[in-house]
Amino acid sequence: MQKTIEFLNSTIKEREIVVLGLSGGPDSMCLLHLLLKIKEKKNITIICAHVNHNLRKESAEEETFVKRICEQKDCIFETIRLNIKNQKNLENQARKERYTFFNQIVRKYAANYLMTAHHGDDLMETILMHLTRGSNLKGYAGFKKITSYPHYQLIRPLIYLTKEEILHYCEKEKIEYRVDKSNESRMITRNRYRMDVLPFLKQENKNVHQKFLKFSEELELIEDYLMKNTEIALTQVYDFGKVNLRKLNKFDLLMKKRVIEYVLKEEYGDNIHLLNDRHVTSILKMTEAIKPNMKIYLPLEKIIVKEYNKIYFCNKKTKKREEYILEDYLKWNDFEEFIKVENTSIPKSNFIIKLNSNDLVLPLKVRTRKEKDSMEVKNLKGTKKVKDIFINEKVPKGKRETYPIVVDSQDNIIWIPGLKKSKFDKNIDEFYDIIYKYVISEEQKNEKK
Q1: Which of 2, 63, 67, 419 is the most exposed place for a label (fewest CB within 10 A)?
Q2: Whether 191 contacts 51, CB under 8 Å
Q3: Any idea which of 50-54, 85-89, 335-339 has the lowest mean pLDDT?
Q4: Dihedral Cα 350, 356, 362, 365, nearest 10 deg
């Protein structure tokens, strides 16, 4: 207990504001008792945030109890009553709504700290559960004693203590509390670890919780070091939602894995729990595969696509085919545009086309590819399939469906801008009265490499 008291005294300054997650159980009531002692010396403000999960018949009485204690101890009382409908993922949903509420209270009072009563046994249970289920390095570390956010710190001061020490303190100080009987149910996974695994470990070493804390802190140091290097790696390989495989494959397996995990977290956010090691392993295999075009179907109808030297996410929905009349100017998308110009000093370029209007049926149009498209490529005999042109030019598979193609009103393909021109293109010494320029941004040029 002394270590927790010293930690609290060294952390909390005069007149600071503390939000405490107060359930009414022995752990949070113990922490409230310790904070009240600090309040006597440092005149801090304590806001008790109580979450009524509304799942047990005792929930209403527990809320009343906590409110009464707050009134007696001159603490501000805030509460919320939850109505969780998704029973399939009850624990995660409850935790999410609980911390959303806590964060709201922190902002409301501009608090310096949010404190929860997680203790050493909780840390052991969390680590063991993550080891059993599988996780990443951060998950295997359990939870931190201090987590810093932009405007406050989340602190767990009881991390040095066992449940037994907390109960002994409550008994010694005659602290009133309520007991959640659901903690005795073997239907709940965490309870089985608490009742079956922890007693064995404590029998082997009564201070085993301190060993778990040291293990957690060591992993945190390693994670912090790796995160700094991961951030450096991301600046080199990840841009505009796409991963450059040429650069990614220069890293070792650990760093590649961390980059992929970061990209998945960016895409899935709070739904990241839907993915597992199998998904990450499949994506890592994809990054090294010789095959240039691949897809992996993931939860929530997301697809991760490999196209030559990059991978990126897309949804299952396909983009509708488009067609626009080409006049003086056409913006195809945010990165590509067509401009009609009066003259050009560029003799040869697949980004410029010179046409004789007498050879064409106007107006010209820009559209996306059709299944059996083919064109008469300039200086080549016969026709060539557009599909084969895309393959030869290494156009990414996903881009092929949206790549602009210039045609006349009889659907003759005049130009695949940036790639190939048709027989309709005129040389500098021939007659032409139409000149178009295809302009793409630097970002899009890099996409084509």
Answers
A1: 2
A2: no
A3: 85-89
A4: 0
